[in-house]
Amino acid sequence: MKVAVVILNWNGKALLEEFLPSVVKNSAEAEVYVADNASTDDSVAFLENRFPQVKIIQNKINGGFAKGYNDALQHLEEDIFVLLNSDVEVTPNWLPPLLKEFEKDKNVAAVQPKILDYRRKDHFEYAGAAGGFIDAFGYPYCRGRIFDTLEKDRGQYDDIVDVFWATGACMAIRKKDFMDAGGFDEDFFAHQEEIDLCWRLFNHRKKVKAAGNSTVYHLGGGTLNNMHPRKTFLNFRNSLFTLVKNAPKKGLLTKILFRLILDAAAGIRLLLLLTPSHTAAIIRAHFSFYRHLKKMWKKREKFQNNEKYYHQTTVVGAYYLKGIKKFSKL
């Protein structure tokens, strides 16, 4: 089983300088690639000089996370792709536990490790934590992270379990399953495209796992800060895209309407918190969603898995009304 660790880079020389050494040192089981998204800094020259053992894929344009990976991965022949953010520090023996899950079960399409915070290494990190789920209305959350509340790592998620989605910050995926599912949706540009992909895998009756016996540390916000309105825009819009594309048709209209109400409440809350730029981002996200609605509907596959896709009916209600801040309490 051949393995490719693929890091997507855009003007990230400083991140490569800090984080790539751990990847090169601890990834003997894999070929390491950097897919450069038409950087305008000297990332490529830096890689050629400092890391001659790393293979470079040069994409022609910066098409974001989704297109960047789609363009890069089509050239690779390895059986397993490990998609790794450029701001992730990996640990010794991080790869074997992930690869073992593919060997144990041919129906496993994707696996993620435990994602801890690079700055607070005893806490989970926002992007993926210990494996992702969504609620009935498409809001994502994780074992170890609900909205902005991050749990301390006490070994409570060191197990190996089925999850609904694996984080794009560090996702191992079979090449065949990635290609059969159509890769990432390039209309997303960035953010939540991995949830959309994993939902398509779910609809194909494939499994996604979280392996808590593998650990990496994620800086987070390396390319787009968590507090940037652009990120708010992409997260809200793309979450609606994902729901329209993948959820069973029965009850979908009701869920979309309920989402509009909940998103409006989120916008009002952000306005009261004196962050009007994020409220504006939610409004723009909805207008963009309406413009693309017909296109997203056409992307629905004929077969939708009618098995229950959500772990919690409404994580918004659990978090804000019931005060539940930990995954174990849901």
Low-confidence stretches: none
Helix content: 25-40%
Number of domains: 2
Instruction: Report the end-to-end length measured between terminal Cα atoms.
Output: 38 Å
Secondary structure category: alpha/beta
Oligomer: single chain
CATH architecture of the largest domain: Alpha-Beta Complex
CATH class of the largest domain: Alpha Beta
The tally of beta strands, per DSSP, is: 13
The rounded Rg comes to 19 Å
- Largest β sheet strand count, sense and barrel closure: 9 strands, mixed
CATH homology superfamily name of the largest domain: Spore Coat Polysaccharide Biosynthesis Protein SpsA, Chain A
Task: Note the total helix count.
Answer: 10
- Mean pLDDT over the full residue set: 95
Tertiary shape: globular
* SSE topology string: EHEHEHEEHEEEEEEEHHEHHHH
For this structure, the CATH topology of the largest domain is Spore Coat Polysaccharide Biosynthesis Protein SpsA, Chain A
Beta-strand percent range: 15-25%
Give the topology, please.
Layout: E1 3-9, H1 13-26, E2 31-37, H2 43-50, E3 55-59, H3 64-73, E4 80-84, E5 88-90, H4 95-104, E6 108-117, E7 132-134, E8 140-142, E9 145-146, E10 149-150, E11 160-163, E12 170-174, H5 175-180, H6 193-203, E13 207-218, H7 229-246, H8 252-272, H9 276-298, H10 315-321
Parallel strand pairs: 1-2, 1-4, 2-3, 6-13
Antiparallel strand pairs: 4-12, 5-13, 6-12, 7-8, 9-10, 11-13
Helix pairs in contact: 6-7, 7-8, 7-9, 8-9
Structure keywords:
about 325 residues; alpha/beta; Spore Coat Polysaccharide Biosynthesis Protein SpsA, Chain A; 2 domains; nine-stranded mixed beta sheet; two-stranded antiparallel sheet; about 40% helix
